[in-house]
Amino acid sequence: MSKKDLTQKTLLRLPDVFASLINFLIFDNCPVIHPDQICPLDIPAQFDYDSSLNPVYRDASAMVLDPNGHPSFIVNFENQTAHDPTMPIRAMGYTDTAYFWQRSQLIKSSRPSLPFSLSRFVLSLTIVLHYGKDPWKARSLHEIIHLEQTSLLKPFVSNYTMNLENIAWW
Q1: N or C: which terminus of the chain has fewer CB atoms within 10 Å of its end residue's CB?
Q2: For the chain, how long is the longest CA-to-CA vector?
Q3: Cβ neighbours of residue 138 under 8 Å, at least 6 residues apart?
Q4: What stretches of 5-163 show up as alpha helix (H) in DSSP?
Q5: Mean pLDDT of 56-60
Q6: How confident is the model at residue 1 (pLDDT cuts 50, 70, 90)?
Q7: Beta strands 53-56 and 71-80: pairing type?
Q8: What is the pLDDT of residues 113-127, one digit of tens each?
Q9: How far apart are CA 11 and CA 58, in angstroms?
């Protein structure tokens, strides 16, 4: 785990904080998710970042279990203090790696010990938590790639928009 934003990462690893944040952001602050439904995950992704293959972890990730203890969905949180023009791609990558992790769990004959059994794919979403002084407008993939040069291809390119919360502006 990177030492950068260690306080936020540590706080988000607490099940009661994670559940409260999900309830606030997704369920209009209704107590839908309880701390005992949060199962923290460490889902690595291998990226060639600086001429070497490095594992990259999102800041906090958890499987949210339904009231019966079955996997319901995955939430990935990423902390940001500065605007990053590549964040839609990074967020999309965090979401994608959660699906690839699920795929690996589903096809493995001997799964690592998890407190739940994964028998199907579940929804994965990534939410960027921005702590900066200036509000940040959510950016989409179409906004950061040069589609004007290949406008005929635009209908074939999904417009991934990152989920962004400007924490300092609540």
Answers
A1: C
A2: 51
A3: 161, 162, 163, 164
A4: 6-12, 15-26, 87-107, 141-144
A5: 78
A6: very low
A7: unpaired
A8: 678 888 899 999 999
A9: 14
Query: Residue 80 and residue 87: Cα distance in Å, rounded?
Result: 9
What are 8-51's pLDDT values in tens digits? 888 898 999 999 999 999 999 999 999 999 999 988 766 544 55
Q: Which tokens belong to 26? A: 């997704």
Tokens 């919360």: give the residue.
Answer: 165
* Number of CB atoms found within 10 A of residue 141's CB: 17
Which ranges of 30-170 does DSSP label H, i.e. alpha helix?
87-107, 141-144
- The residues, ordered by sequence, that sit 6+ positions from 142 with a Cβ below 8 Å of its Cβ are 154, 157, 159
